[in-house]
C-alpha cells in the first residue's frame, strides 16, 4: 500500500472538523495551556510558504501539550480591518466587508489544508461588530479613567471629579497634559460643564487634543510612528508631513515606566525587549524654566520649559532653540524676524522627524529676535528656532550648550554664537564629551570643581530653590494617536455636544460602521464617515439616526474618525477565552481558568507596535481588576522570516535582448525579476512561459547557452512583488501537508531567517514514505505489526528518540527533531522493526509534526479515538544503558582495531577473548607478548 497523503489528509481534516477534536473546554479539570499565534490580516494574495512557519511551530507545541495531558487553547482569527481592503474598495467600489469575507474564506481553506489544531469555534474577526463591541467598550473605559501616579494605577475619572469638587486639582498627582492649569474647588464649581469637560480631557487615558501628527496626504490619513519607515508610509511608500490636528490620543506615556519594568516578568527575546526599551527611551534629567525678556511686541515675560539630561551644563548655555512648531514661537518672534521665521516653519514642516534628527552636519535655524534670561547668571541668551529640536520630544525646546552637545556645537558654529567652555578641558569633541563623567566644571559659579553627578544634584536643588526647575524623567515614547481618517476601522462610540465628546451608553454597543457611498474623504476634507447619511446619535431613543435630524438638543453628530489597526489586536488574546460572550468582554470563569497566554509566536516586526500597545491595554485592564496578570504573554518567540530565492533574467541595456547568465560577463545588463514558477531546480528558464508572461517579453530576443536559458538567483525576502513566492497549496498538492510541515521545520532554527528551496522537500517526503513502509511490511506492502517483544536495539532507538524529541520540543528546537526522526526511522528500518510496542509510541512522537499521517497509522493500529490526546510516550532511561563495549585494542600503545565485548566480562575473560581473536593472532604473527594490560570498560593494550 502506498502512502496516499491526499486521501489521508482530507480524511482527517473531515474527521477533526466533524468531531470537534480541538475544542478547548473552559473550566476543564485538566491544567490549561494557551498557545497563541499572531492572527493574520487576510490579504488578497493568500498565504505563501513563509506565513505558516510560526503557525506550524505553535501547532507542534500545542499538539505536544495535548499529548502531555493539558487542556490546550489554540485559537485563530483575523485582524480584518485594514487599509488594503479599503484601497481596493476605493478603486472598485466593492464594499471592504465583501473583499474581507472573500479573503478570509481563502485563508481558511489554505489554513485548513495544513492540518492546524485550531479551535475554530473561537474564531474572532476584528471587523465583526460582536467583536469590536468590546474594542469600543475598552475605549469607553479608557475615557472614563485617569492615571494616579501615587497609586501607580489607572483609576475611575469620577474619583477625580470628586476631588476637584472638594479641593481643586493642586494636590492631584496624575499623568496629565503639560498645560493643565491649577484650579481651586471654587473655580471648578464655577466652570461651565463644557469647561469642566475640557479640563477632564487633560487627565483621561484617552483624550481629544490638538496634536502634531504624521499626515500622509496620499493615503489621506494620520500614521503612527511605527507605520512610517524611512520617512515614508510603510504601506505604499508615500511622503509623510507633520501637521497639527484634533485627534484622539491614548495616554500610553502614563504606563511608560511599567512597560519598562514589567519586561522583567516575561520570557521574551532579549532583542525584542531591547527594542521596546529603546522605543520607550527613558532619560533622567531636569526640566528648567527660562523666562523671556519682554519686548516691544511681547511685553510680558513668557516661561519656556526645557528638558535636559545635563542640568550640570547650565552655565554653558549660550542660546536656546525651540522646535519650529513650538507654541510660543510666533508670540516671541519680533516683528522684523517674522517673515523669515514663518518661512522656516513652512520648510521644516515638510521634513520628516528622521531627517531632522539625522542631519547633524547641516543644522539649520533662524533667530527669533527674542531673548531669554539665564536663571542664574541673569544674562540674556538669544532664542533661535531650529528643526533639529523635535516638537514632540521633551518640551520641544532646549537649552543649548555648544560645548556639551554636538548639535548645539554645530549650530553655534554655523551662526557665530559664542561657545563658552565650562569643562576643565579644551577638547570639546564628541569623544571627550563621552568621557565627561570624569570632568570637573569651571566657569560655572557654584559648580566650579564639581564633577558630573554632584553638579547635577546641585543644579536641581538650586533650580528648585528659585522655583525654576526640578528633576524629571522623560520618555521618548509619545502618547499614541488613535484616530484614523479611514472607513474600514472600528467606529468610535462617541458623539459631540457643543464640540465636546460624549460616550454612547455601554449598553448601546456596538455602534456599527455606517454604510457610505464613497470610501474617500469628503469634498470638505472630512474622513470617509463624513459621507454617511445615517450617522447621528439620538440621545433619547439611543439609536443611530439620519444626519438631517441633528438638532444639537437631543440629536448630535457622531465621530467621523475610526480607530487604528492596532485597536482590535490589543485585546484579541483575552477575547479568545470567551469569544461569544455578548454580556461581557469575557466571563469571570473564562479568565480565571485561562489566565494568560503561555506561548505566543509571531513576527518581530510588531516589537514597537502591537506588542507595546497590547501590553498597555493589558495593564489598563489589570488596573480595572478585569484581568489577573500585568502581562498577557508569558513566553514569546519570534519566528524568523522565510526568504525566497528570486530568479533574474538579464536584459542588455537599450535592447530587448535577454542574455543567459553565463553570457552576461562584462556586458551592461539590467536584472529583471521573473516568476520563480517558470524556473526549474537546475535554474533553467521555461522560455515559453516567460514569453507568455508579459507582452513586452513576447518578442524578446533570447540568447541561450548550451541550448538553455539559465537564470540568476538571489535570496531575498519572500514577497509577491519579487515574484519569488511559493504557494503552500502547490506543495500540499504535490507532497502533502505533513511533508510541508516537516520541511518548514527542517529548514533551520525557528528564530532564524532561512531561504526556501522547494527542491529540498523531496528529502522529507522520502522520509515520510519510509516511515509509512515501516508500518507496511506485510506481503504486498500491507499494514502489518507484530505483538512480539522487540529487540533491545529497537527499544534503545525508540527511547533515545523519545528523549531527544521531548527535549527538542521543550526547547523549541523543531529542526533538530526532524533529523532525529530520520535517524530513528533509518535505524528501525535496518533492524526490520514491525513491533507494535515500538511503532505505536513512534506514531505519537511524530504526530505533532505530521498529524495526518500519525492519525492514519494510529487508526490502523486499531485505535478508535484520535491520536491527539494519546499520552506522550514515557522515556525509560534503562533502555539506553549499553550492554556491550567497543574495546580499542592497542599494540605497544598503537590502536589497531576494536572488539565488541559484553560489559559484564571480567579482566581474565576479556584477555582471553582478545587473545583468541583472529585480528590479534594476525597482529602478533606468532610473537608472545610480554604483558597484556586490561582496563575493564575502557581499553586493552598488548605490550611486547
Ligand atoms: C542641555 C544639554 C547639554 C543636553 C549637553 C545634552 C548635552 P535624550 O538623552 O535623548 O533624552 N533635547 C531635549 N529635548 C529635545 C528635543 N525636543 N529635540 C531635540 N533635542 C532635545 O536627550 C535629551 C537631550 O537632548 C537634552 O539634554 C537636550 O539637550 C536635547 F551637554 O540639554 B540637553
Strand count, sense and barrel status of the largest sheet are: 7 strands, mixed
Can you tell me the residue ranges where pLDDT is under 50 for at least 5 consecutive residues? none
- End-to-end distance: 61 Å
Rg from alpha-carbon coordinates: 35 Å
* Portion in helices: 25-40%
CATH homologous superfamily descriptor of the domain at 282-474: Valyl/Leucyl/Isoleucyl-tRNA synthetase, editing domain
Number of helices: 31
Instruction: Output the structural class.
Output: alpha+beta
Q: In CATH, what is the class of the domain at 282-474?
A: Alpha Beta
Mean pLDDT: 93
Ligands bound, unique: ligand ANZ
Q: Name the overall outline.
A: globular
What's the CATH topology label of the domain at 282-474? Isoleucyl-tRNA Synthetase, domain 2
Named at the architecture level, the CATH assignment of the domain at 282-474 is Alpha-Beta Complex
Compact description:
The protein is an alpha+beta fold and 944 residues long. 33% of the residues lie in helices and 19% in strands.
Question: Would you write up a description of this structure?
Answer:
The chain is α+β, with helices and mostly antiparallel strands. Among the domains are: 193 residues, Alpha-Beta Complex (Isoleucyl-tRNA Synthetase, domain 2), CATH 3.90.740.10; 68 residues, no CATH class; 62 residues, Ubiquitin-like (UB roll) (Roll), CATH 3.10.20.590. Helices cover 33% and strands 19% of the residues. It is built from 31 helices and 34 strands. Strands 10, 11, 12, 13, 14, 15 and 16 form a seven-stranded mixed β-sheet that branches. Strands 25, 26, 27, 28, 29 and 30 form a six-stranded mixed β-sheet that branches. Helix 25 crosses helix 27 and helix 26 runs parallel beside helix 28. It is globular. The two termini are 61 Å apart. The model has no long low-confidence stretch (mean pLDDT 93). The structure holds ligand ANZ. The site of ligand ANZ has 18 residues, from strand 11 and strand 15.
Amino acid at each position: 500500500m502506498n502512502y496516499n497523503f491526499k486521501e489521508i489528509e482530507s480524511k482527517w481534516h473531515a474527521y477533526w472538523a466533524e468531531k470537534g477534536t480541538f475544542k478547548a473546554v473552559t473550566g476543564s479539570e485538566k491544567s490549561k495551556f494557551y498557545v497563541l499565534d499572531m492572527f493574520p490580516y487576510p490579504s488578497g494574495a493568500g498565504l505563501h510558504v513563509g506565513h505558516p512557519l510560526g503557525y506550524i511551530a505553535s501547532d507542534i507545541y500545542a499538539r505536544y501539550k495535548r499529548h502531555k495531558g493539558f487542556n490546550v487553547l489554540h485559537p485563530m482569527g483575523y485582524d480584518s480591518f485594514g487599509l488594503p481592503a479599503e484601497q481596493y474598495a476605493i478603486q472598485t467600489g466593492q464594499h471592504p466587508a465583501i473583499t474581507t469575507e472573500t479573503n478570509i474564506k481563502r485563508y481558511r481553506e489554505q489554513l485548513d489544508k495544513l492540518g492546524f489544531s485550531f479551535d475554530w469555534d473561537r474564531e474572532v474577526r476584528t471587523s465583526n461588530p460582536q467583536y469590536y463591541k468590546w474594542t469600543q467598550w475598552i475605549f469607553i473605559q479608557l475615557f472614563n479613567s485617569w492615571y494616579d501616579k501615587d497609586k501607580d494605577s489607572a483609576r475611575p475619572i469620577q474619583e477625580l471629579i470628586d476631588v476637584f469638587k472638594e479641593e481643586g486639582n493642586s494636590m492631584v498627582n496624575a499623568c496629565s497634559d503639560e498645560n493643565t492649569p491649577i484650579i481651586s474647588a471654587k473655580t471648578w464649581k464655577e466652570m461651565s460643564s463644557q469647561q469642566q469637560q475640557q479640563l477632564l480631557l487633560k487627565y483621561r487615558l484617552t483624550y481629544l487634543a490638538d496634536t502634531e501628527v504624521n499626515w500622509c496626504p496620499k493615503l489621506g490619513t494620520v500614521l503612527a510612528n511605527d507605520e512610517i519607515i524611512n520617512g515614508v508610509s510603510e504601506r505604499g511608500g508615500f511622503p509623510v508631513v507633520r501637521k497639527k490636528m484634533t485627534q484622539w490620543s491614548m495616554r500610553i506615556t502614563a504606563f511608560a515606566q511599567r512597560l519598562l519594568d514589567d519586561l522583567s516578568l516575561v520570557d521574551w527575546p532579549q532583542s525584542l525587549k531591547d527594542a521596546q526599551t529603546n522605543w520607550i527611551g527613558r532619560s533622567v534629567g531636569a526640566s528648567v524654566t527660562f523666562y523671556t525678556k519682554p519686548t516691544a511686541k511681547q511685553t510680558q515675560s513668557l516661561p519656556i520649559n526645557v528638558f535636559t539630561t545635563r542640568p550640570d551644563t547650565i552655565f554653558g548655555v549660550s542660546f536656546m532653540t525651540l522646535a519650529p512648531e513650538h507654541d510660543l514661537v510666533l508670540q516671541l518672534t519680533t516683528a522684523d524676524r517674522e517673515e523669515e521665521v514663518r518661512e522656516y516653519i513652512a520648510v521644516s514642516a515638510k521634513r520628516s522627524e528622521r531627517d531632522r534628527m539625522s542631519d547633524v552636519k547641516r543644522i539649520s535655524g533662524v533667530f527669533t529676535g527674542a531673548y531669554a534670561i539665564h536663571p542664574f547668571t541673569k544674562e540674556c541668551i538669544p532664542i533661535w528656532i531650529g528643526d533639529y529640536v523635535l516638537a514632540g520630544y521633551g518640551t520641544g525646546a532646549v537649552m543649548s550648550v555648544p560645548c556639551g552637545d554636538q548639535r548645539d556645537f554645530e549650530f553655534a558654529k554655523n551662526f557665530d554664537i559664542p561657545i563658552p567652555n565650562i569643562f576643565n578641558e579644551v577638547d570639546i569633541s564628541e569623544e571627550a564629551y563621552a568621557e565627561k563623567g570624569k570632568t570637573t566644571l569651571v566657569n560655572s559659579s557654584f559648580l566650579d570643581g564639581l564633577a558630573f553627578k554632584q553638579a547635577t544634584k546641585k543644579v536641581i536643588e538650586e533650580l528648585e530653590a528659585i522655583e525654576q526647575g526640578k528633576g524629571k524623567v522623560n520618555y521618548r515614547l509619545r502618547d499614541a494617536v488613535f484616530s484614523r481618517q479611514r472607513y474600514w476601522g472600528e467606529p468610535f462610540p462617541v458623539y459631540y455636544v457643543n464640540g465636546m465628546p460624549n460616550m454612547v451608553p455601554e449598553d448601546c454597543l456596538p455602534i456599527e460602521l455606517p454604510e457610505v457611498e464613497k470610501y474617500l474623504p469628503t469634498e470638505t476634507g472630512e474622513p470617509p464617515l463624513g459621507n454617511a447619511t445615517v450617522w447621528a446619535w439620538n440621545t433619547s431613543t439611543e439609536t443611530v439616526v439620519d444626519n438631517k435630524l441633528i438638532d444639537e438638543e437631543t440629536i448630535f453628530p457622531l465621530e467621523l474618525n475610526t480607530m487604528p489597526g492596532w485597536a482590535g489586536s490589543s485585546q484579541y488574546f483575552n477575547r479568545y477565552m470567551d469569544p461569544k460572550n455578548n454580556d461581557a468582554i469575557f466571563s469571570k470563569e473564562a479568565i480565571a481558568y485561562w489566565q494568560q497566554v503561555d506561548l505566543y509566536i509571531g513576527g518581530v516586526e510588531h516589537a514597537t507596535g502591537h506588542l507595546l500597545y497590547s501590553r498597555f491595554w493589558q495593564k489598563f485592564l489589570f488596573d480595572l481588576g478585569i484581568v489577573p496578570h500585568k502581562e498577557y504573554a508569558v513566553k514569546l518567540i519570534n519566528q524568523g522570516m522565510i526568504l525566497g530565492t528570486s530568479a533574474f533574467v538579464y536584459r542588455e541595456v537599450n535592447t530587448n535582448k535577454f542574455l543567459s547568465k553565463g553570457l552576461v560577463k562584462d556586458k551592461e545588463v539590467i536584472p529583471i525579476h521573473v516568476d520563480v514558477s517558470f524556473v526549474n531546480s537546475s535554474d533553467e528558464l521555461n522560455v515559453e512561459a516567460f514569453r507568455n508572461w508579459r507582452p513586452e517579453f513576447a518578442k524578446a530576443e533570447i540568447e541561450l547557452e548550451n541550448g538553455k536559458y539559465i537564470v540568476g538567483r538571489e535570496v531575498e525576502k519572500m514577497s509577491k512583488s519579487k515574484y519569488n513566492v511559493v504557494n503552500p497549496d502547490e506543495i500540499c498538492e504535490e507532497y502533502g501537508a505533513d511533508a510541508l510541515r516537516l520541511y518548514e521545520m527542517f529548514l533551520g532554527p525557528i528564530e532564524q531567517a532561512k531561504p526556501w528551496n522547494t527542491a529540498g522537500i523531496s528529502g522529507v517526503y522520502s522520509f515520510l514514505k519510509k516511515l509509512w513502509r515501516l508500518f507496511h511490511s506485510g506481503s504486498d506492502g500491507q499494514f502489518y505489526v507484530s505483538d512480539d517483544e522487540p529487540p533491545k536495539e529497537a527499544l534503545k532507538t525508540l527511547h533515545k528518540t523519545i528523549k531527544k524529541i521531548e527535549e527538542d520540543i521543550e526547547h523549541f528546537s523543531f529542526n533538530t527533531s526532524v533529523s532525529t526522526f530520520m535517524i530513528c526511522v533509518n535505524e528501525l528500518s535496518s533492524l526490520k522493526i514491525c513491533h507494535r510496542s515500538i511503532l505505536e509510541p513512534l506514531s505519537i512522537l511524530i504526530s505533532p509534526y505530521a498529524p495526518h499521517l500519525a492519525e492514519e497509522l494510529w487508526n490502523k493500529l486499531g485505535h478508535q479515538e484520535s491520536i491527539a490526546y494519546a499520552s506522550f510516550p514515557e522515556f525509560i532511561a534503562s533502555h539506553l544503558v549499553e550492554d556491550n563495549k567497543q574495546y580499542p585494542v592497542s599494540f605497544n600503545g598503537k590502536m589497531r582495531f576494536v572488539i565488541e565485548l559484553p560489559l559484564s566480562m571480567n579482566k581474565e575473560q576479556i584477555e582471553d577473548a582478545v587473545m583468541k581473536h583472529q585480528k590479534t593472532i594476525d597482529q602478533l604473527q606468532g610473537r608472545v607478548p610480554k604483558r597484556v594490560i586490561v582496563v575493564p570498560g575502557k581499553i586493552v593494550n598488548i605490550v611486547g
